[in-house]
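Need tokens for this chain, all 23 residues.
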Amino acid sequence: MALNIFKKKKSKDKKEELKDIKA
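Here are the structure tokens for all 23 residues:
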């Protein structure tokens, strides 16, 4: 899960990453 999020949000803001991980 985290791997996919990091890969997808690599170019996005870190805030979105935490949001997806928390969701």
